[in-house]
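ugh ok fine here u go
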Amino acid sequence: MLRLALASLIGTAIEFYDFFVYGTAAALVLGPLFFPSFSPLAGTLAAFGTFGIGFLARPLGSVLFGHIGDRYGRRPVLLASLLLTGLATVAVGCVPSYASIGIAAPVLLLLLRFLQGLGLGGEWGGAVLLTAEHAPEGRRGLWSSFPQMGPSAGFLLANGLTLALSGALSDERFTAWGWRVPFWCAGLLALAGLWLRRSVEETPEFRALTETGRRAESPLPEVVRGHWRLLLLTGGAMSVGYAVFYAVTTWALAYTTGRLGMDRTLMLAVVMAAVLLMGLVTPPLAALGDRWGRRPLCLAGSAACAVWMFPFVALLSSGDPLLVTVACAGGLLAMVLMYAVAGAYLPELYAPRIRCTGAAVGYNLGGVVGGALTPVVATALAAGSGPPWGAAVYLTAVALLSLVCFALLPETRPAPPSPSAEDEAGAGAGAGAGAGTETGAGAAEAAAPA
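structure:
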């Protein structure tokens, strides 16, 4: 389990590194380089628009790779999605600016960002199912939290490199070529990830589906036809995680450095500290989900986000580094309450034959509302003078939407782990797979329309 979980964590971290390095560049330099005829605000909005294209592509990627995962196995998804995202990210670092090739520059940027999103849309489902379907039932939440730490690790890696370059280079050099270096590094990281994942074994549940001939012929139609309500609820439920994370890591970075004039290097350090804290508390919170259930933590996290958004904006608009750090850390700590257990919760809601498609599509639908729109909407709502209370209203509304969706979803908490299950880890993994089949199918039937 440790080897599988680490392979899942490292691969997911690399994929999210690719995705996040674009978000940081969009907040700092892409507007002037690729949309120079726009005003500073319009250029930032346009850069965040290309950022949002990746989120629109993610549900399509989850459909494509979910079909592969449910028909041909979880393992091919892990390799293909990593390769696609890595190649697209390297290519972004090679796109000439608007000054060199004109309108072709932002068009190429949009295309490559779309391919990034397509690859990442398949990554989450494959990585989470790798751990969830191998794990003993009573520890599924804990082991499934490893890929949930991938976004934190990928963000720290992407922003750590950007921070180092920002501190070492002048503004002119960073804008000219320094911002491209993290994109080029994605190629080496992708090769390392492929090497780590080359020997990953197929999950016990998919092997059982293959042996019994119960694989879904057309996973997406089966999910949409039989479990459309569950799909919409999981998408709405996950939107708060995306909204708060990108409000802290992308919009807040652009707002504080652009509007408030805070130092870019300082703000990168502040955001990284908040994300590091989020990553450290993810496994303990996931372990609580194994003991108390997934749904209570999801409800608590959504409610905490709704309560925190107005204090978040007030602290952020102060421009004081310490208060801004408290704002960012508080937002991510509230969000991670629900995000830590999502790696176990979403797969348990769907039966194994449609799990890769259902869980991945539901997860990435949340990204359209929470991830694609948040930087654009928050930037637009913060255009006036004074604190951006409109952004706080928007973020609170997303949190309340997720709270309602989680309230309508069923609990999937497994039985408490028995001593024999812990002692016999190998047998426990097989038993957990079988139990997860019943739990996931039952939860899906409970949430789907009659």
